[in-house]
Amino acid sequence: MGRGPRGLAEVVGKMSLPLVLSPQAVRDTNKAKVYYAAISIPLALAFVDELSTTLRFIQEHPKGGVLIRRSIRQFPVERFPYVVVYAIHRDMIRIVRVFHTRRNPTRKLRAEG
User: How far apart are CA 77 and CA 14, in angstroms?
Assistant: First the structure.
């Protein structure tokens, strides 16, 4: 397979951090799902699928997102105008927002009701 003992150890020893969604990220996600479902159920399902793919990527490659503040990163959701805003902690990756990119970017790190 081309992997030496060290390569295998790196794969076996690699553990991903758990993702923890903030209450705001849950609200953001639910709002987007409702919006897309009102247009089309397949569109809502596509959004959920793309968001899930993005979250898996973040979990596997936490530093893959663009650094937007000291410890805050963001990564785009393919095919949809959203970014996942997150922070890497020692024991978890906290999903701060699922933010619509057409909104005012100064609100990106604020909780909304």
Answer: 25
> Cα separation of 111 and 113, whole Å?
7
Structural domains present in the chain: 16-106 (3.30.2310.20)
For residue 54, the 8-state DSSP code is H
For the question of whether the overall pTM of this predicted structure is more than 0.70, the answer is yes
Tell me the mean pLDDT per 10 residues along the chain, length 113: 44 73 97 98 98 97 94 97 97 97 74 58
As a whole number of angstroms, the distance between CA 73 and CA 64 comes to 9
Query: Structure tokens of 32?
Result: 């987007």
